[in-house]
Automatic annotation (TrEMBL), chains A, B, C, D:
It comes from Chanos chanos. GO terms for biological process: argininosuccinate metabolic process; L-arginine biosynthetic process; urea cycle. The lineage of its organism: Eukaryota, Metazoa, Chordata, Craniata, Vertebrata. This is Argininosuccinate synthase. It catalyses: L-citrulline + L-aspartate + ATP = 2-(N(omega)-L-arginino)succinate + AMP + diphosphate + H(+). Residues 178-399 form the Arginosuccinate synthase C-terminal domain.
Length: 412, 412, 412, 412
């Protein structure tokens, strides 16, 4: 007699394979669900593996397009970046994956969902907040937080033994001395030898980007066209080729960025759970878009709107990082940011070269840039005398402050 | 009979030489004041030139050390950056220059100050707000905003003619088709052919940084040590050389950054005066410090303090850009930011290579990073079960929101 | 030969009557425009006066309804309040008045607009920024900033003499020793004897509200119903009467608030121009709505949305105060705030009594308040054990901080 | 054999008396700790009761002075207010109480602390975060979150039975149909019949303030003097009496405020735990100080400093409410706010009358208010012509925006 049905976010790897079997051992029916969000994976093999381990059903879902359109694009609009450095590649993947997981659970009448995220990380929160938000009555089984599970599997060795005992295929290649998470947007690396924040990352760690030392000696010059703050076309100017669908655009930017070693960072970040952790990320296409969108936005958006929107973008980034993609406040902020992008339109030319993105120029039918107004050579509709009054009035407050301080001049 | 004495911010160039003579023509005694903030300039020649043009006195002031310690260092602490991209190299030089100008004016009993900044730019504001703040009763003569002046000198040709007529030495090399401003921190380029935001910058424009295409194929690995958020030592790890005074540190970072083509940006920014303008900047040492300070700060500062401090840093950047270095609010913000830096201490190792700064690792006696706590291999003082409650409580609000929305599940 | 046509914001009072005549003297055709935004005024008499002074045309425009719906309502949604105290009654009237002025100017082919606001105040900015925003090529004549005008009219005596000389009817009642500005939302009092911030306001100053000392000894109990953050009905519970159109609702709240002496404040505020000024305001209906809207909003809006919206409301208030109602950023913020109000719906019961507004209770079909969840008597869908984990995880960061500080316990 | 020693935050009431006995039942030694923070309580009786129940030791600590100086005063400086309405009277008491509890625990070698706060409220968090922050290795026993406890005591009836059985004196007066929490700063009322947010509060609920209907018909006119943002003297102008120590000042303001029914609010607020709850508060002295401090601050603080400080104050309020008084970020914010108060000095005159606080006037040796500068009658050091330039430059951006929108005039 089954305790009920669990939809398990299954990766095909050792951990979630063991979890699948363990859940069955506990008396659950298990539906294995594997989201394709662009990671390198043999999905057919994974399906067979899950079936062979006793999954009642297996769902392998290609979420790549919705990942780009509904998660990456809003992040590009927001210039989303956590703590000034991290482009949130894992953070935005989690709600995308969990949303489908919940849909499957509802559709299959499953009361439970489960995942293999650890008990110290951010991902458990991102998965579960999404599940609770979209399926409030769901029950979540998080084995790495259940003492019977984590006490039994205290290290990789225990998992290997369990796998062998239960006929779970065991990886033949030795595990890298760190863990990684890959999707269309990025690969992240953490733990293992990277846990010592002083240790330099080995140069063979990166899988998505070439070492800038080995990058080609000739830049690629691209033109990216934006409408409403999202890219609608990327053109390679020399090759005169272009991409126009969201998935093609993003994949192509990954390719070019990867070729030139763009988007590598090594940071210490603050987890929602209150710890500092060290993470290494490579985000080639996302990095190109980050710089390019900043440029077209500054070109077309009013200064003061930009300032308010910048604040909303920082808030948005924090919400995403902490797992609140599906929350009333994140929906509100997304709406506002999207509104701000109405005029963010135009073309940016850029050079991708040896780890860097260089903005070369930009044009837009909606720019607030007024060449005549700003020109040093012509007057435009501008009276320089106005600036005197502007400065004098701005100084009223400063002069009053000084008057009060009295001896302030001595201070300087 | 003199109308009074003017302290003129004199650069040695054509514009301020003409202004010097013109001010004398208007009946003022002129004191020429030239600040050395690290620009390439023949200061002796400039002194002689000013004297020959009839300056009553000439002050040539070496402000390099105070520029680094009192203006660059606080900006490093703040991660000061305007509109996400511009490191404010010109903005922080202006109050440094104007402060001394005002000191000289007071000391020499001059009622007037003057400068050669244009009527459309930010610098007029930065100069004048500083002057009004520190010398509230000063009178400012800003020729480029005075119709008699700017109508007489409508182009470079008019200045050249005036110069010839008044024995002002005329530059022999043709002027670059853009204007530039240089100091220890950066060189900025704008106007002329750069006014069209679509035009790519010519590759020979940059003077402070090498073209990344021609940069060495071997990185330089540095270690920068911080105390209270400012660098106190930089060490070249392979060469085992190090620098320890502020000016030496910054100069050395400029050298290394320049060698590898670090810190070039091409942006459109929003002037305080309400226009968008296009600027190109190269900030080699400042860019290295920006990335390095971000790293040591994230490593040592509490997450929530960081968030508040980030907001203050954005405010600080805007204040600096707009000319409010000497204002009650900027003093307040500087105080707060400085307070936040008390524990920002430690060493960052980094690689400077082909236009990029790569952080490699970091260590600190004051880090909040707890390797055991965050480890995936050991438990540390952490109970994973706590995370369940944490997530469930965070979900209370989200589930209520969903409950209210009722049909929300259909939405997704 | 006319210099052109000026649309003058005409109040019917001495100042703008003199300005009307003075503008004609300067060679302009003058169209007098008088907005009815609820001030006590004999509009017919004002029309005749303007005609008799030589106005080419006279426009008397009833803007009361649009003032309530398009200016007061968005301010209610925003909980707009400047510097924590001032409800912005004058600030929001200015763009309303100037918008129509500009419409008339366009329609009548007038190139000029003019107003009687002083050169030290906020209103000149609010008028003129609205005009420039909506009619960028307009020319503005601001007599109180023109030396020929303000040197000629240095005091009220000069205006009186000019009036007598030019057949301008002179007020028969002596002027109050302060100036005031009245509209549907409030009356403001400033200058004159109020300029000394220590002076108490005389008790006969207030015109819109009764002295709380003389207010009735029985409260009025109202119920205000909101939809999308604006009141749609107000009911007097004992009298069972109700009002439903915006103008009627607001007028009625003024009446009840006025009767009980609600909404008087005496403050020092910071003008955009950099000065501190002292203002006294009475805003009866606006004060009732401020408290009531805060209540229904807190009842129906998610906590985190509220926090973000609060920040936007502060920004909005500052923008309004400074004259930026018609600006890209204010339009953006209004849009976002309006979006946040979608679920702000329900009824609030309140007592208006002797200078105060007391909230008594509230109900809403869209509330996020869950009586069972919050109850101390029943469990609801809530496990108290979750709070332990929540607290423990929130403490991770605090305990780490303490660990680092080491001797911190001695500190306390 | 004892399980160890617990320091229990003991109130003398039924709940914590039962907890005391229950803890002993569980095998702990119990130290009873009762903080005097100004609540009405027979402390001697409470001591005897605790001793009779078997407390190993009893600590009754008078924290009133430190509560005013270290917790209320910083809140006054910050204008601390949660969600625009709640003056945080309970929130700031918790860290004050818990700090001493932890000191006692350390001093007595107790490894445990315990309290009687419920599992749905904010107070559990405020208590425990303080304990973890100041005594990271402490173990906390929170009976209302322990199933064996809360399942045993499902209602007041169970507690009464347990009390009778264990010789715990049972209250003779029937419990009010709500719960309350009292201290020097305020009394809060919640739950019971108040849980329905539509129910009006009964008029006999309030204990600290008189019903405004019954308040005297003559106002009390006070003068409060501030230094560094905190009150240093309060004077009753008619009676010529004054108070000068923090505790006396605050107690006196409570008395005057209470007499006139000042500081009653009925709100719905957002708990940290994610629920909305309804609370009724009376904060007589705190309300007087809130209004008075706002006034002296606006009078003496620069506009832009005020804006930044306002943001910090909102953050501070949220931190306090959520229990983070002892956190790195709250310490940082307190430091910054305190810095901002250096010039907040002067005297405010005010009238306390029938539920309201009316500011009448203010004076300060450090005010930035410049009567001559702001005067409508004299020019002061101000050129009205400057405002034209100020407005024109501020309009540059607005006119550009309009230019781009093209058909915008039709819009209006």
């Amino acid at each position: 007699m089954s305790k009920g049905t669990v939809v398990l976010a299954y990766s095909g790897g050792l951990d979630t394979s063991c979890i699948l079997v363990w859940l069955k051992e506990q008396g659950y029916d298990v539906i294995a669900y594997l989201a394709n969000i662009g990671q390198a994976e043999d999905f057919d093999a994974a399906r067979k593996k899950a079936e062979s381990l006793g999954a009642k059903k297996v769902f392998i879902e290609d979420l790549q397009t919705e990942f780009v359109e509904e998660f990456i694009w809003p992040s590009v609009q927001a210039n989303a970046i956590y703590e000034d450095r991290y482009l949130l590649g894992t953070s935005i993947a989690r709600p995308c994956i969990a949303r489908r997981q919940v849909q499957i659970a509802r559709q299959e009448g499953a009361q439970y969902v489960s995942h293999g995220a650890t008990g110290k990380g951010n991902d458990q929160i991102r998965f579960e907040l999404t599940c609770y938000a979209l399926y409030p009555e769901v029950k979540i089984i998080s084995p790495w937080r259940i003492p019977e599970f984590y006490n039994r599997f205290q290290g990789r060795k225990d998992l290997m033994e369990y796998a062998e005992k239960h006929g779970i295929p065991v990886p033949v290649t030795p595990k890298a001395p760190w863990s990684m998470d890959a999707n269309l947007m990025h690969i992240s690396y953490e733990s293992g030898i990277l846990e010592n924040p002083k240790n330099h990352a080995p140069s063979d760690l990166y899988l998505m980007t070439k070492n800038p030392e080995d990058a080609p000696s000739v830049p690629d010059i691209l033109e990216i066209e934006f409408r409403k703050g999202v890219p609608v076309r990327v053109t390679h100017l020399k090759e005169s080729t272009s991409k126009e669908t969201p998935l093609e655009i993003f994949t192509y930017l990954n390719e070019i960025g990867g070729k030139h070693g763009v988007g590598r960072i090594d940071i210490v970040e603050n987890r929602y759970i209150g710890m500092k952790s060290r993470g290494i990320y490579e985000t080639p296409g996302g990095t190109i878009l980050y710089h390019t969108h900043l440029d077209i936005e500054a070109f077309t958006m009013d200064r003061e709107v930009r300032k308010i929107k910048q604040g909303l973008g920082i808030k948005f980034s924090e919400l995403i990082y902490n797992g609140f993609w599906y929350s009333p406040e994140c929906e509100f902020v997304r709406h506002c940011i999207n509104k701000s992008q109405e005029t963010v339109e135009g073309k940016v030319q850029l050079s991708v070269f040896r780890g860097q993105v260089y903005i070369l120029g930009r044009e837009s039918p909606k720019s607030l840039y007024n060449e005549e107004l700003v020109s040093m050579d012509v007057q435009g509709d501008y009276d320089p005398g106005d600036a005197s009054g502007f400065i004098r009035i701005n100084a009223v407050r400063l002069r009053e402050h000084h008057r009060l301080q009295g001896a302030a001049q001595q201070k300087y």
